[in-house]
Every structure is written in C-alpha cells, then in structure tokens.
Amino acid sequence: MTARSQTLAVRLATPNDTPLITRHRRAMFEDMGHADRAALDEMDERFAEWVRHRIESGEYRGWFVAADNGDVVAGAGVWLQNSPANPRDQSARRAYVMNVYTRPEYRRQGHARHLMETILQWCRDQSIRTIVLHASDSGRVLYESLGFRPTNEMRILLPPAE
Minimal CA–CA distance to 140: which of 129, 131, 149? Predict the structure, then answer.
C-alpha cells in the first residue's frame, strides 16, 4: 500500500502513545540537525516522563494522523499553559504547539496542515486565543499560511551551574 492509497484519520493521543510522541520529537530534532546522540537520549528519557504526566493531567493534548491499520504517519501536540492576562488576551490560558512531525514519506501531503487546523479549531472550541510555537525553517511557511506571525520574543540559554 502506498502512502497516498491509505485511508487516514485523526485520532487523539493517550498516555500509551508516550513512546511514539517521544520518537517523533527526537526525529523532529534530528531533522533540524541535532546530532548529539547522548543529548538526544537524555532528552528522550526526560521528555517521556514529562509528556506522560501532562497527558494524564490534561495539560498536554496530542493528535495523530493514522492509517486504518493503526500506522501513525504524523503527529502534533499542544501544551496548555497558564498565562497572565495582557492587553491582547485577558484569558488565563495559552496553547504552546509542539512536537509537529510527519514521517518523510508522508510529507507534502497536507498532514501537518490538517493537524494544525485540528489544533486551531480545538483551541477555538476551548476559548484559547493565544497560540504560540517555535517553527523550524521547513515549517515556517505552513505556520505563516495559517496566520502565525513572528513576535518580539528574545531568549538566553544560561550555562549549567558549576
């Protein structure tokens, strides 16, 4: 069966999907050029615990595009965060989109777009107005086409304490 001849549908992630979400996250970082296996292995271990807890608590919501046989071809998630009110959004919640990943043989077929549209609609249904993400170079065009715009965020990564 080819990638285009399968029937695909969106399904929700469960805590049992923790290993799959972790594999997708690692593959996403590898695609962006991160090659330090030790750092990726440590990330996998810490992330798996983090995401399982947040799926169970309802702080993380994930979706997959899956074939009839259960084969998952793409995934994406939302981490719900508490946020103080600001002049543009008085609500106390925002969504951080993360772990957007499509297997290479299924790319450029609209799966990531479908997942993002699912996420945006879910956020509308939950009255979540502020949705943020960090875009890879390859994902930027998709996110901009959905209405995402760059912000004035700045970042510093402090070295580990000695």
Answer: 149
